What we know:
Helices cover 10% and strands 32% of the residues. The protein has one helix at 43-53, and strands spanning 20-26, 30-37, 60-66, 69-71, 81-90. The longest helix has 11 residues, at 43-53. The chain has a domain at 20-90: Ubiquitin-like (UB roll) (Roll). The chain contains one helix and five strands, in the order ββαβββ. With 110 residues, the protein is mainly β.
Amino acid sequence: MLKLVRIGDGATLQVQAPKKRIFISVPPHIKDKAVVWYPGATVAQIERSIARAAGLPDNAAIELRDGDDVVVLSPTIPNDIHLWVVNTVLRPSPATAPRERPQATGSRVL
């Protein structure tokens, strides 16, 4: 939200974009580390930033938890929420993902 107040000579105008911030914890070493983003960030960008802040690879599949609840990541998640990061598995990157071999169909006569 932009609030414009009447200003006079010599005054300065400061415009600030609203940022979102959550705090993440990853036992045993990371506790309440801030992750911040600005409007326009995608869920994928936010997820990568959380993984990096948690000390995980960019392609880590993470789960966010609030106590026993699993939290779905959204750009509109409430500010200053404290979440636990759980590394579920590593997602294969497109370059290293195994390729499926085509399967033969039908019967062959030898």
